[in-house]
Amino acid sequence: MSNSTASNSPNKKKKPLPYFMERTEEAALPSFQNRRTLADHVKDNMLCAGRKSYFQRIVYVGRHPKVTGMTLRDRFLKLIKELQECTVCEIKLFGLMINFDGYTVHMVESAEETVGEYLRTLAAADLFEESRVVLVYNNINQRLFRKLVWRVSDYLNELKRTELDQRDPNLTQGTINAFLVQVYQLCKMVREEELDERSAFKSLYLDENYEEHTPDIAVLEYLLGLKCLFTVPEYASFYGRLPDVSSFRDRVWPIPKDLTPYDVFETGKYDVNLTFGGK
């Protein structure tokens, strides 16, 4: 009796799988009638990540007037608090913010609207002497942090400076790649520290264990001098605000049913009469 009841009960509606996880060959292979666009791949990535919002990750560096790391932290905290109080987007800012002695290495991730609004606010705050946006990663599959994590360090001046060969044709790309590897390693280490349940107290200061993965002053100054990278104000002016795109159907009422030109029956002095039925 129980078996018949179970068999007759309706199955719960399952969530759709992305096309590359489907079992059937017809669903896996694109066809002329069902062509996939970039938007479909974006939706697949968000479905795999278990979220509905389009997330973005940005890494930028900055040089500040000579102040302590804790003073910089307080200034950024005040700026972000004011941003969160007036923003209309409910998704907060996440990521890792490291303030060195006069320098900043920040990795922030959130919804695209939140990141754009933050960079516009940051550009208007005049906190930097110089800044560069090193990485822009759109549609990230997974966030590295679930909150905004701060770390302060005072060992930057003690690090051995990297010798950069200015004659190397691959110096720019090699330096950027090495810098991003260090940033991601720092994020991984701090994330593991944050998730460690054995330690209830999380230090705000980076210790000597992080020195090996910290970019030194020579690398930071080289990145700050690259004209091929956007500054924070430049990036904010170009991409800091999502465009308000309105289509033809949004501007015309009533909505047209076909694309027949409104002047199709009007003839001018030099138009040819194809009907041969009149003058």
From TrEMBL:
MF terms in GO: blue light photoreceptor activity; FAD binding
Membrane-spanning parts: none
InterPro entries noted in UniProt: BLUF_domain, TEX47-like
Top-level taxon of origin: Eukaryota
PROSITE patterns in alphabetical order: BLUF
Family annotation (PANTHER family): TESTIS-EXPRESSED PROTEIN 47
Name listed for the protein in its UniProt record: BLUF domain-containing protein
Upper lineage: Eukaryota, Metazoa, Ecdysozoa, Arthropoda, Hexapoda
